[in-house]
Amino acid sequence: MYEIVAKRQLNATVTLLEVNAPLIAKKALPGQFIIFRIDEKGERVPLTIADTDPEKGTVTIIFQLVGASTKMLGAMEVGQSIQDFVGPLGVASHLEGIRRACVVGGGVGCAIAYPQAKALHGMGAKVDIIAGFRSRDIVILEEEMRAVSDHLFITTDDGSYGEQGFVTNKLESLLDAGNRYDIVIAIGPVVMMKFICRVTQPRGIKTVVSLNPIMIDGTGMCGCCRVTVDGKMRFACVDGPDFDGHLVDFDELISRNSNYKEEELAHQCRLPGMGGEVHA
Amino acid sequence: MPNMSPRKVPIPEQPPQVRNKNFSEVSLGYTKEMAMEEAERCLQCKHRPCVAGCPVNVQIPDFIGQVARGDLEGAYQTIKSTNALPAICGRVCPQESQCEQLCIRNRKGAPVGIGRLERFVADYHLQHEGEKSPPPPTGGHKVAVVGSGPAGLSCAGDLAAMGYQVTLFEAFHTAGGVLVYGIPEFRLPKAIVAREIAALSEAGVEVKTNSVIGKSSLVDELFEMGYEAIFIGSGAGLPTFMGIEGESLLGVYSANEYLTRINLMRAYDEGFDTPLRRHKRVAVVGGGNVAMDAARSAKRLGADKVYIVYRRSMTELPARQEEVHHAQEEGVEFLLLNNPVRIIGDENKAVTAMECVRMDLGEPDASGRRRPVEIEGSNFRLEVDSVIMAIGTSPNPLLHRTTPGLEVNKRGCLVVDDGMATTREGVFAGGDAVTGAATVILAMGAGKTAAASIDAYIKEKKR
Predict the structure, then answer these.
(1) What is the rounded average pLDDT of the residues A8-19?
(2) Closest residue by Cα to residue B223 from B398, B396, B403, B400
(3) Residues of B in contact with A255 (CB under 8 A)
(4) Residues of A in contact with B237 (CB under 8 A)
(5) How far is A161 from chain B (nearest CA, A)?
(6) Could you give the angle at the alpha carbon of A192 between the alpha carbons of A116 and A92, nearest 5°?
(7) Running DSSP on this structure, what letter comes out for residue B355?
(8) Measured between alpha carbons, how far is residue A180 from residues A22, A184, A196, A204, A244 in Å?
(9) Which residue of A216, A258, A278 to mutate against B (max B Cβ within 10 Å)?
């Protein structure tokens, strides 16, 4: 059992938990993920590791309340324990040798972009972060991201905070203004990652994306997380989750991630009092 | 006088049209009277050909003689002395190509029902178990066993009995490997597997779930933690796809995914959270036990049509005979000598059909089986809404990628010597991780051999 030692509500639908998992805390590197299972009847759900504290032995996860499992997880309190928590899984991000990076986070994707920016910043790289949100009330991790970047640019779709517009617009304007990056790291909704790649590909800027397909085991066993990269079938759990964004078939990923939409809506039976709304 | 009936004593089963709607075990097993009657069919012949057909050398005529005399606990001890998991082997071993194939009664009529008797003896023991003895004192030497499938279980069991302090590492949240994620409840009840794991714990083996060796801890770190030897029984978990068009469409699964959702995650049970789509027309590609398991599961989940699509003929079909018969009885249709060409989807990228081509059998190939050859222009469309790929698996690369000095062959299988020692000192391996996908009993045999080698290795090191 893995005890929850701290909890913070980052916005109405995004929760941060610190979980006691000393072995994982000692081992985890940016880009890797864990799989949790709430209880004996739970499903296995992958979440990218947002932060670790090897001395305290804790792993931080940040997640959006989208389905039954994340809603149940979000309803847990400090002192309660998660049945299963396994990791670190996946290949760590390759950050060596990067001198100038632009890290782009979309919504809750900022929780995954943050550890990468933090690691790069710690390695002495120059880091710009573009963090995009729908509106002011769902902005998360602003101070944390500011602390690990040279420039933090926040965009909101409705203009209620930061600059009005999408992260793609901001990236384009930074590039047009002459900013040069060795790499763009884009993490967020699949559509956002797809359009970031449309900005960077013609300019020849290497772009790495972190993919979030549906998984079961997370060790290469089920093949559920298969994605097409450069025309070849790859498993996000063992070959990724980071891939060269210019080679990813994003449309296929969008379709595969929609596979259980109906079941997700129907399956709210273990959530008394919870609405059936599903956020994309 | 032996029982000279040419047929096995029939075994009670759930009727096909009842069982193809539930996940309870198909075979209900012998009663004591039936078992004793079947045991009488054994001629107790002097040269004991059946024993040579058993990968773990069960003294078959001895235990059958004990059953015939009604000494069921004695029979259990006879089996248990060489086979760590009798309740499991009695259910999943391919007896028709091992012990029963060599049975003298097989020349005229049916062989002795060795598998059924083994299963009966093991179940009887579990139902009538008395006091358990406390675990034997350990000699303080620590051994790590990676993977809790058949190879790991048998290796851990043997090492614990020899007095080693064994830790069994499992990547999943439940121990048992393919016995829990792969083989369905209706063929191998999970309670039986859980019982075998509990017996190991009682024998002093520490079971650590959620431990992905190669990720959560590396093999080198296990040595640093004080383990003197390591056994790798990590199986062949990596699914194979055909590489044809349409394999990423919605409704296409590897058999591993489909069966894991059902068996390990119990997605067929409304009380569990893991989702599962209930398809109406399902094609399962492949002809092994895994293909039969997937097809019969699909039927139980309410599919109207379930097809086995296999590129060779019934003669070459590698599944256990009993599974093929059960699948046929339950309404699974066999489309033999057919091979998928591509999978076709609609505008929502969901499967609507699979294009196949008819095959003919040519000359025998390297495997000794006649090579299937496409019949040109014989393509046809099979209307299905789901395709399950059950065309084999290969060893998971996680361990060898993260362990210096561990060699693998071209197929990704760990290279070992006769004693199951890998190319890395102190590291042993067995089961599907070495052979590629094979049977439960072969993996158990390998685990056993490795346990003996590990014992010899540690004793040698002590000197």
Answers:
(1) 93
(2) B403
(3) 250, 348-349
(4) 217, 219-221
(5) 37
(6) 25
(7) E
(8) 39, 10, 15, 11, 19
(9) A216
Please identify which residue in the block is written with the tokens 């014989």: B378
The bridge status of strand B333-336 relative to strand B305-310 is parallel
CA distance linking residue A173 with residue A183, whole number of Å: 16
> Is the Cβ of A84 closer than 8 Å to some Cβ of chain B?
yes
The structure's pTM equals: 0.91
A130 near A151, Cβ under 8 Å?
Answer: no
Q: Do A216 and B254 touch (CB under 8 A)?
A: no
Q: How far is A84 from chain B (nearest CA, A)?
A: 7
Burial A161-176 (b: 16+ CB within 10 A, else e): bbbebbbbbbbbebbe
Question: What's chain B's average pLDDT?
Answer: 93
Write out the two tokens for A159: 């203009």
The DSSP code for A229 is: E
Please state, in angstroms and rounded to a whole number, the distance separating the CA atoms of residues B300 and B306.
10
Report chain B residues whose CB lies below 8 A from the CB of A224.
253-254, 257
C-alpha span between B234 and B240 (Å, rounded)? 17
| CA-to-CA dists, residue B152 to B171, B192, B233, B277, angstroms | 13, 17, 5, 33
Q: Do A86 and B173 touch (CB under 8 A)?
A: yes
Residues 6+ apart with CB under 8 A from A152: A128, A129, A131, A142, A145, A146
Say whether the ipTM exceeds 0.95: no
Extract the tokens encoding A254.
Answer: 């969008």
**What phi and psi values does residue A276 have, to the nearest 5 degrees?**
-100, 15
Q: What is the pLDDT of residues A213-259, one digit of tens each?
A: 888 888 888 998 999 999 999 998 889 899 999 999 999 999 888 87
**Separation of CA B224 from chain center:** 33
Nearest alpha carbon to residue A100 among A178, A28, A167, A168: A178
Dihedral angle, C-alpha A105, A110, A112, A116, nearest 10 °: 70
Mean pLDDT is lowest, of A37-46, A68-77, B189-198, B395-404, for B395-404
